[in-house]
Amino acid sequence: MAMMDTDLQCDVLIVGGGLVGGPLACALAAHGVSVAVVDREAPETALAPAFDGRASAVALGPQRVLAGCGLWPAIAPLAAPIREIRVSDGASPLFLHYDHRVLGSDPFGWIVENRAIRQALSRRLPALPLARVLAPASIQALRREAGGVVATLNDGRSIGAALVVAADGRGSPVRAGAGIGLTKWEYGQTAIVCTVAHEKPHGDVAQEHFLPSGPFAILPLPGNRSSVVWTEKSALVPGIMAQDDAAFLAEMHERFGDFLGGLTLEGPRFAYPLSLQFAKAYTAPRLALVGDAAHGMHPVAGQGMNMGLRDVAALAEVLVQAKRLGLDLGNAAVLERYARWRRFDNLLMLGLTDAMVRLFSNDIAPVRLARDLGLAAVNRMPGLKKTFMRHAMGLVGELPRLMRGEAL
Amino acid sequence: MSALSQPTTASAEEVARFQAIADAWWDAEGKFKPLHQLNPPRLEFLRDIAAAHFGRDIAAPAPFAGLSLLDVGCGGGLLCEPLARLGFAVTGIDAGEKNVAVARLHAEQSGLAIDYRNATPEQLEGQFDVVMSMEVVEHVPDVDVFLAAAAARLKPGGLFFGATLNRTAKSYALAIIGAEYVLRWLPRGTHDWKKFLKPSEFAAALRRAGVTVAGFEGIRFDLVHDCWRRTDSLDVNYLLHGRKD
Ligand SMILES: Cc1cc2nc3c(=O)[nH]c(=O)nc-3n(C[C@H](O)[C@H](O)[C@H](O)COP(=O)(O)OP(=O)(O)OC[C@H]3O[C@@H](n4cnc5c(N)ncnc54)[C@H](O)[C@@H]3O)c2cc1C
Ligand SMILES: C[S@@+](CC[C@H](N)C(=O)[O-])C[C@H]1O[C@@H](n2cnc3c(N)ncnc32)[C@H](O)[C@@H]1O
Fold first, then answer.
1. Which long-range contacts (CB under 8 A, 24 or more apart) does A368-373 make?
2. Going by CA atoms, what residue is nearest to atom 23 of ligand 2?
3. Residues near B125 by Cβ (< 8 Å), separated by ≥ 6?
4. I need a surface site. Which of A114, A226, A317, B162 has the fewest CB within 10 A?
5. For chain A, which domains are there?
6. Is A143 on the interface with B (CB under 8 A)?
7. pTM above 0.90, yes or no
């Protein structure tokens, strides 16, 4: 690039080294593309238990992406497999039951605490010679020009690159700075997240109860522990969060049920207001959006990071191929290939999760009857169920190599 | 065109056509869009053949470091830049002075060291490990004279790469009527179908210049993905590679 006078020169500048930007950095740096990762949080902060108490359901395809990034070996010992999924609708006895044996011997996916993924990243990235992590740091100025991108950090250092990737989450300052618009609506729901220990083993079963105020999910963690995602009307959440642990636990236990015996609370509780949002464009000159910066969805289907990892697989494949052809990585044709590959798949998932939330988050009798019959019908049609399952596992569509478990 | 007072292998009229739109060379959506779109498959072809020939690993950084390459009729340098990033020491020559000026400026912006010269092959000295001439033979007045001059710049045992349009009914329909008149991808009059070369004619001319063709491959447009792909059919656009004896 013409800006030889920058302090650091690399192929790709990634803003945001979270659950999506981090794996992208690993995938690129492991395949000959040099990266600089800038994150406003210090790595120690992001690893503290109070930073992110969530656990993520990771589907089979995205799990292969984490493996291809060299992250899975560090995550695997801390991941709990999901072998069964039970979906129930409020008090209705009709429910949808998915058993992994229908599709073969692989589990549906795994539940992994976000902290375990961040830990794996903090070990893997420094071991990659082509990756540089600059954190805590923030971008003071970002210029995208004909010859390349130049970023100036708050400490005055400058970084030159052929491409900048916005992996800076829902609020993405990089997206906003590029003038890319956002379509967004609020659900009026907030997710309360906590971890519980229980008396009885969960048997690798993930549960989702659709309650009128929103879905209530119980996700199996290693040992006799589960991660709870309790979606509630936002107006009620401050009151619930303000309660002491005993009162909070009692209220949660009512929704959780007794099937795992007595419950105890582990670690802090967290609250995340929920919305759906999508960027009007995935790319601009010398810029690509990935993960929540491009699309944020309701966690009802546990798909946000999974979709982000699909972005990672597609973008890494496109960029590694371009690099091996000597192409300019910020070139419009390269970026367009990525956008084409991901736009439709992401919109489909946004639409699906949105429909689920709207269909289930109410207690209107006819809607209720229709969806109960619908769930029962899906249960009785093995073909349709299999398709749903494969989609949720991330195995549908023209898959990037990393999603197929192949090398780049 | 002082350097070219008496060009022998270039047609003044043809070169003027490219010079007139020289500013558009690097506009991926502009008049040279087809060449930009052709880049991935033709680079892949060149890279794979060269990697096999020189025993290089395509996943390594700058796999072709230490090898010299001459691009004859480089235009704005659309191929020179990627090839320089792949490690070749690239020399790009073009009969159009403006083309070379645009190429030079862009390489500077890209931070790439490429030796661009306003020249035709017969004006050059020295020999290269690789000589290529992509989408040029259909624009020269005498193919034999041109290829002899280009091949003279190739080291014995070195690799030659060429690309052009085949002279078939399909290429007439696609390249002239389709690309120039219907899709308006190319300015009208960019191509003269009678000057397109059949693969056998291209190979025979190279043979006379001392280069033995070792293989051909076609490129076709994929309408679904809006990009070009490698194919076995040589009906329209095709590539070839050969070796100097
Ligand atoms: C309650 C809940 C449960 C969920 N459960 C699941 C699940 O089970 N499965 C699943 O797949 N997904 C789940 N998700 C979604 C998932 O958490 C997100 O999709 C995922 O975190 C997106 O990752 P990201 O890296 O794109 O963004 P983020 O995780 O938001 O990371 C952004 C990164 O950018 C950094 N950053 C931000 N701004 C700047 C800046 N200006 N400069 C530098 N750095 C910056 C931040 O520090 C951070 O590291 C859930 C979400 C919620 C809210
Ligand atoms: C269709 S363009 C191809 C450019 C480039 N090779 C590519 O494929 O991107 C043809 C170019 O060949 C140049 N040209 C034609 N005859 C030439 C000759 N005899 N010597 C050098 N350049 C020539 C023209 O000026 C023009 O820039």
1. A368/A89, A368/A90, A368/A92, A371/A89, A372/A89, A372/A92, A372/A94, A373/A94
2. B73
3. none
4. A114
5. 8-80+110-184+276-361+397-404 (3.50.50.60)
6. no
7. yes
- Cβ–Cβ contact A333 with B under 8 A: yes
- Across the interface, do B109 and A324 touch by the CB < 8 Å criterion? no
**pLDDT tens per residue, range A221-266:** 999 999 999 999 999 999 999 999 999 999 999 999 999 999 999 9
- Partner residue facing A326 (CB), from B36, B82, B227: B82
Contact across the interface for B28 and A333, Cβ inside 8 Å: yes
pLDDT of A382 over the 80 cut: no
Question: What's the gap in Å between the CA of A137 and the closest CA on chain B?
Answer: 27
**Residue range A180-195: mean pLDDT, rounded:** 94
- Are B32 and B24 in contact by the 8 Å Cβ rule? The answer is yes
When computed from its CA atoms, the radius of gyration of chain A, rounded to whole angstroms, is 21
Listed in order, strand segments (DSSP E) in A222-362 are 225-233, 263-279, 283-284, 287-289, 295-296
Q: Which two tokens stand for residue A355?
A: 């429909």
Region for A203 from its dihedrals, namely left if φ exceeds 0, alpha if ψ lies in -120 to 50, beta otherwise? left
Q: What is the complex's ipTM, to 2 decimals?
A: 0.91
Interval A363-373: pLDDT, tens: 665 555 555 65
Nearest chain A residue to B46, by CA: A325
From the candidates A286, A323, A325, which should be mutated to test the interface with B, based on the most B CB atoms within 10 A? A325
Task: Evaluate if residue A126 carries a pLDDT over 60.
Answer: yes
